[in-house]
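Task: sequence design from structure.
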């Protein structure tokens, strides 16, 4: 029984997996164009929460931005997830934080 549930979940996850593959592939191309090695691109992707943050990071590196500017860009772009977690962790009823989180997650 558990095996069937696993394969059903795997099958249901294929469309979102393909979407993430396309994003990851394009970010790999941007990282390569910025002059990063595969290991550097992997570490940057691992440390970033949002793909928009990764893209901005790679573009900033490509344009020879200063370290402070790169850090500020990454913090601002990834800050929405910090805000989402604050709303979810609050003791208020879940409907209000859920609506706010959904609104913040829109890109």
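Answer:
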């Amino acid at each position: 029984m558990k095996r069937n549930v696993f394969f059903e979940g795997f099958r249901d996850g294929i469309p979102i997996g393909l979407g993430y593959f396309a994003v990851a592939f394009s970010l790999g191309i941007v990282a390569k164009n910025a002059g990063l090695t595969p290991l550097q691109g992997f570490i940057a992707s691992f440390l970033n929460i949002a793909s928009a943050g990764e893209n901005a990071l790679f573009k900033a590196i490509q344009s020879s931005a200063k370290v402070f500017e790169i850090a500020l860009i990454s913090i601002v772009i990834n800050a929405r997830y910090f805000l989402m977690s604050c709303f979810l962790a609050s003791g208020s009823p879940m409907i209000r934080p859920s609506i706010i989180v959904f609104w913040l997650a829109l890109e």
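The mean pLDDT is 81.
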